[in-house]
Amino acid sequence: LDDVEKAFPYYADVAKTFVTGAVTYLKDTGSSDAKWYDEATATEDGTQSIGTITLYGCELARSITVSWKLKAMSVSEFIPYIRAKLSSKMGQALGYGVFNGRGISSDSSWKPEPVGVITELLKSENASQVIELTNPTAEQLIAGFARANAAIEPYYEDGSAYYVNSKTLWSRIAPICDSTGRPIFTVNSDVQSSIVGYIFGKPVKRDSGVPDDKIVLSNAKEGYMVNVNQQITLSQQDDNKARTTDYNAYGIFDGCPVSAKAHALIKLTYTG
């Protein structure tokens, strides 16, 4: 999975467990603050809203069928190329799932997927975590980044980062300058790092799993959980009668945000 995690840093950053079967985690849905008291005053009952999430395991698979004739007539690099393409497609599916996965359908409209962080934030109860900007000016976009930071609960702020795809980063964000003419995005000189730059001191990571014109601010390690029932495996099976070989990739994964307050979403809309 090394190549997957390089291409999709959000999947690399999320917390992972490797528990066989279904696994249940606590989900923080809000709590009251501690208070100061004098000696004569009894401590009030606090509130701590705790929910649960259960990760069951969603099957992820990809298959390519190759004829024996094509294999026999191909260069030696052909089979490694097929295996690399399988791994790449599996990685794309994992990168999609942690951002955009739809979860389990109530009416079997789609096959089970992880619950993506964007999917969770777009639920009506999490509207406070979404900043919507239409045809934003530079000042409005800068203010949008500030609002996104403010939307995250302080506990999750340390360790949070921006995740954005290349198109949105270079066409929407990189050209933006503040009132003094300084760009808000500064490029990281370490080309080996997954961090391509910084906005307001927070790391920016380029991830193609994020849709165009969306920017996710997230504490991936504290705010999203993935359980891996089975890592990606590659196998092959021959069909002697058909004279073909099936190359298969297979894995079992599930994931879900553990707190909406660990994330914020900036939605950009451009018209005309």
Q: What does it look like?
A:
The chain has helices at 2-7, 9-13, 68-72, 78-100, 117-121, 138-151, 154-157, 166-173, 220-223, and strands at residues 15-17, 23-31, 48-55, 58-67, 130-134, 161-164, 185-187, 195-199, 202-206, 214-218, 224-239, 244-257, 263-269. 30% of the residues are buried. The chain contains 9 helices and 13 strands. By secondary structure, it is of the alpha+beta class. Strands 5-13-10-6-9-8-7 form a 7-stranded mixed β-sheet. A 4-stranded mixed β-sheet has the order 1-11-12-4. It is 27% helix and 35% strand.
Summarize the structure.
The chain has 272 residues and is α+β, with helices and mostly antiparallel strands. It has helices spanning 2-7, 9-13, 68-72, 78-100, 117-121, 138-151, 154-157, 166-173, 220-223, and strands at residues 15-17, 23-31, 48-55, 58-67, 130-134, 161-164, 185-187, 195-199, 202-206, 214-218, 224-239, 244-257, 263-269.
Sequence-ordered SSE layout with sheet pairings:
Layout: H1 2-7, H2 9-13, E1 15-17, E2 23-31, E3 48-55, E4 58-67, H3 68-72, H4 78-100, H5 117-121, E5 130-134, H6 138-151, H7 154-157, E6 161-164, H8 166-173, E7 185-187, E8 195-199, E9 202-206, E10 214-218, H9 220-223, E11 224-239, E12 244-257, E13 263-269
Parallel strand pairs: 1-11, 5-13, 6-9
Antiparallel strand pairs: 2-3, 4-12, 6-10, 7-8, 8-9, 10-13, 11-12
Question: What characteristics describe this protein?
Answer:
9 helices; 7-stranded mixed sheet; alpha+beta
